[in-house]
Amino acid sequence: MSGMGIGALMLPSVPVIGCTVSAEHLLEPWMDAPAKKKLTEIALNAAKSKGATYTDVRIGRYLQQYLFTREKQVQNIVNAESYGIGIRVIANGTWGFSATSDVTPDGIAKCAATAVEIAKANSKFQKEPVVLAEQKGVGDKTWKTPIVKNAFEIPIREKIDLLMNVNNKALDGGASFVTSNLFFVNEQKYFASSDGSFIDQDIHRIWPTFTVTVTDKAAGKFKTRDAISSPMGMGYEYLDGIAAEKIAGPNGLVGYRNSYDMIEDAVTAAKQAKEKIAAKTVQAGKYDLVLDPNHLGLTIHESVGHPTELDRVLGYEANYAGTSFATLDKWQSKNFAYGSKLVNIVADKTQAQTLGAVGFDDEGVPCKEWDIIKDGILVNYQAIRDQVKIIGEKESHGCCYADNWNSVQFQRMPNISLKPAAEKRSVMDMIKGVEKGIYIIGRGSYSIDQQRYNFQFGGQVFYEIKNGELAGMLDDVAYQSNTQEFWNSCAQLCDKDDYRTFGSFFDGKGQPGQVSAVSHGSSTTRFNGVNVINTGRKI
Amino acid sequence: MSIILTEAEAKALLQKVLKYSKADECEANILGEERGNLRYARNQVSTSGSLVNQNLSVQSAYGKKVGVATIDEFSDESIERCVRRSEELAQLAPENPEHVGVLDPQTYQKSSGFFESTAAVNADFRADAVMKSLELSRAQNLTAAGFLENQKGYTAMMNSKGLFAYYPSTSVNFTLTVRTPDGKGSGYVARGYSDVKKLDTAAATKIAIQKSLGSVEAKALEPGKYTVILEPTAAIVLLENIYFNFDARSADEGRSFLSKPGGKTKLNEKIVDERVNIYSDPSNPDLPGSPYSGDGQPVNKMSWIEKGVVKNMVYSRYWAQKNNVKPVPFPSNVIMEGGTATMEEMIKSTKQGILVTKLWYIREVDPQTLLLTGLTRDGTFYIENGVIKHPIKNFRFNESPVIMLNNLETLGKPERVVSTESDRNYLIPPMKIREFTFSSLSDAV
């Protein structure tokens, strides 16, 4: 599931974890690493004494600042803090988990005992004991997102001024309505395990976004255009909008790499939403699609990211998100053509400025990069410590994550990215070679089946391509395909100069649901002969 | 003191909160809840958990300057700090032109959503209920993945004009997917109740097993327009998108499926078949809901669609004041009236059609028409000459629930159903619809 789209960003549905605090409180320092280590040792010892054969402990302080505006007014500002400890154990060969906000020696010892009790109680269901891939203790380690400006240190006034400026520019540009939001997250988490790891991490994420709406009341029509920003593993510097990070596209369109010009995008959005009102409805049929990274990221997420999660492949998500077509026999054959030879997809938890980048995962495993699809062939999955033996590997991939101290960690998607072409190619070069096609930018409607075969995607803006040139805007566009067919129709990639990341800030998985944030990099990519449907209806 | 406060305890706590207030107006909301869950997959437990949660939210206002603060710990010192913080935030806040003052005391109807039976559910109960299910799927060499979650809690509020409201409730949700070991068959069941005595995990499991075994060796049908019989689990994930979009402001602003050319709305217009009646009623014993909304408005019985005509839309207090109409809060439950037909009768009267038991990954394609896309899942069957002939491969659909309710053939008897998209519970009937649009095939099982 790729979580909430922009359209779903109504105030009540945004996950806010913890209690509201003052903006200043978010900047107050937390306890130092030695103090945290002391507390985790209480948990490790208590669990061991109750019979745990393995224990990991996460003390976390999770900070969020969210700002919501519409037109000329501030709707809400949320400053929230969640603080507590989660203890996971193996006892009788079975997992047990317990969490508490009572971070005192007594509270921690009780919580550890409960985790062991739960493991023992659940062991009556267990058929095979849990076996963990070996992970040598890493000792005392620290890791920080390499931010330039801590978003929490920027005065609220400055953030509101930015959003009001965005709204005013959109309204001046002809928008009937506009909502704009800023999301900032800081995870301060300390991990300790009975393997001998003590890891202190400070992780920052940012997401600026907006939705512009244009209505034509006389005709009873309305169209929206969402921001083409990307959530990032960066500080407030992402909003500097520096020229060197802008990528010039066809017909004056602009793409944003690692720096976003929110005001410029709002002006463009109002213009494009007006154009959408008058755009020509698409004629259904086969088209060559030229997909911008800000659009293709979601297609990668749904059709490659989720089906290659090993827990899905094995059936652990069968009751909710589903299983996967990318079964073990396909991987074992070593010749399953997931895509054309141009398709090289890597999993990664280290790429700078991405949402997935951390030093260590929530099982204390150092992060790395590995291949998922190489020259079109499925070569690996995403796996954590208790699964990786199933694919014959001895080391976890390091992609275990929990969205809070009170959630149990499980396998979550690392960054899953498509490598750009080695040869030189710009978007303009690519479009020149397309006779009948559609150029799609931005994240739109999306849906995919529970084994990730059949999907349908929309977008934010669609341009018709006729004989190598953009020929005006189209409306009512969605493309439908089958994952393997689609990736095998991948015909051309732009080079690294066009490479950008897309992100999902609230990606949902599990029961009860947890969110995570993940990036997907790619350059603009061409897919030949994809089925496009017309989504226009009358009611 | 327990996390779940009695009405008297909640009142006393809220009075204490209000005593600390120095603002022009103050409103306090509290909640307390306990949740427990057991999740399993591949026929064994994968995770389990419990959550205890309480929260106090204080909103202080000076004129139209508003501040909100929350805490999860209810000592006198914390409460006072929370009230002070909300006042400080209000002083610093810009004026909110849409702020309307707190309500005078209101009268609320009775609603009984709290069941001692459900409140007593513990880890042992969950383990036994899941074991009853697992025994059945294991015995037939099938693979089960499921989730059982129970909740008990209350909400309460008070404001500086003396308004007080309190509502306790309980719930239990059980969902299960049973798959054949070769991966060719899959069946699903979902059950949601306020009273856990109604939950029979073994009986529910038998339905999922039947669908799992019955869906093996599915044949492909050509995509196109078909008559469909939608079980309530399938129908609700489409219909709830109508309810989610009943906001008057969006309609007035020209950005809703309820907006019309010329700037008007579809209020009092017929939008669907005249047999469609949709309303809410918190006192319904099969689907009890909160008798008050978060801002203290009474939630009473309210008709939304009557004989196919839009009768009411949701008006926030601000939007109602601006338009000089009565405010209408969001409903706490939604009920669709049904007919008398049984599922057997609906199948028997179908010459050619498709029985859809579940729909999945529903997303809005066009907010203007409420066009939705998604897929069938976990048991889809071909009906010919009044009998189920064979399972069929899953389809992707592109359909609007508004168009669908105009193509209504028959309504069955309403039952309580859990939305697999939103987790909300509803009362709706199974329904037969003509010309439902399937646009492509899926290989997924």
UniProtKB/TrEMBL annotation, chain B:
Organism, per UniProt? Answer: Dyadobacter arcticus
Q: Which InterPro entries match?
A: Metalloprtase-TldD/E_C, Metalloprtase-TldD/E_cen_dom, Metalloprtase-TldD/E_N, TldD/PmbA_N, TldD/PmbA_sf
Residues forming the Metalloprotease TldD/E C-terminal domain are 223-439
Superkingdom, natural source = Bacteria
- Keyword Protease listed? The answer is yes
- Domain spans labelled Metalloprotease TldD/E central: 143-196
Q: What is the protein's name according to its record? A: Zn-dependent protease
Coiled coil segments of this chain:
none
Domain Metalloprotease TldD/E N-terminal, by residue range, is: 34-90
Keyword tags: Hydrolase, Protease
GO biological process, alphabetically ordered:
proteolysis
Describe the family membership recorded for this protein in Swiss-Prot or TrEMBL.
Belongs to the peptidase U62 family.
Q: Does the entry feature the keyword Hydrolase, yes or no? A: yes
Per its record, what are the GO molecular function terms? peptidase activity
